[in-house]
Amino acid sequence: MSSKPVHRAWFENFNDPSERYELDEVVYTARDGSLLQVVHDMDELRKTSGEEWKALFEQRVHKSEWPYGSGVWGLKEWVLPEIDNQNVVSMYEGHSNLFWAERYGREIGLEDLWIKLCGNSHTGSFKDLGMTVLVSQVKEMIARGVEIPAVACASTGDTSAALAAYAAAAGIPAAVFLPRGKISVAQLIQPVANGAMVFALDTDFDGCMEIVKEVAQKDGIYLANSMNSLRVEGQKTVGVEIIQQFDWEVPDWIIIPGGNLGNVSALARGLDLLVELGLVTKRPRIVCAQAENANPLYRAYQRDFKVFEPIAARTTLASAIQIGNPVSYEKAVDALRRYDGIVEQASEVELAEACAEADRTGLFNCPHTGVALAALRKLQKRGEVKSSDRVVVISTAHGLKFVDFKLNYHQMQLEGIVSELANPPIELDADYGTVRDELLRQIDTRFGRA
Asked: What is the pTM of this model?
């Protein structure tokens, strides 16, 4: 790089740029109740050319120099430029596999389909990308003398896992508020194992969110949900990473599941920087996919976003996006409008069968990825996604977090779902002849023989 500018970033009112706060201030919303966003000094960032940024980011990938080998902290100047590297709390998150779904794409009529496997991360979801930034900033604030007794979040599973792990690594107390009986055992045990204070409440996610906002306001607990825009700063790197993995070529479509909607706006924020700083010139179209049982954004989209009405989210297999009153609705709408966006929904049957169909080609999808894949099929049928389009589906979590969902599917025990692709174990006596006969019969039935 030809120069070393002094990069800065701050909180800013999403609707009023004149209202600003330093990043070490404990503040989550603007005076008018609007969400804040982290804003960077673009004039300083533009002093480095697009080609110089590319060279720097390529130089850092998978290297051991702390903390730049992380997929998030390799973009430090675009994330938290002023933080002391010693206060970065990182598990070298990011750099997750961009999986070429060649067989699955061929089967559904797409030549260029890719799955961004964000679940291939320390705690098994994309939430690590945002939590490394938030917890690092908290550690920096504590080092500067800010009194923070604990960090806390409401969660449907993945956020709590990420917060608990990163807070444990930093030695910072963490509290998580979960809807009792509404998350998988795999998701529950993660914060338990990492030593967080785990509160299972008799409510849904939205009820947990009200509680965590109250303890943040009244008791000085630092709020770690996506209404805290520090989370968006980490999550925005997924868009940059996808483009970098394509050698700085931009796909036609990026499809992402949406619940609380911070991930939608985060994706757009990362893509914005690529365009504004001259690394790319094209913008992809963004699709937000929602479960039909928790679809307030989809309902608003049907009315051109002119009316938004929170709903009581019904139970969905895609439990992490079972949210009826998304905090980041306004930011998501802004992102979708700027990226010629579409909102689509998937029923419980559609998401379950989409998961099973893709799993048959070597994937192992969480139900939220099933929502995105089902949305993709609908866009294909309408002719909006063409067979030659390059499509990226963001897989938000690892399928191993949802083994009960998969087991129940293949045992045909999901309520209201027939399980068209059920594949239960075949139980036989331990007799060679019996096993051989059934094996050959299965080969004939499933695959056919010449």
From this structure: 0.93
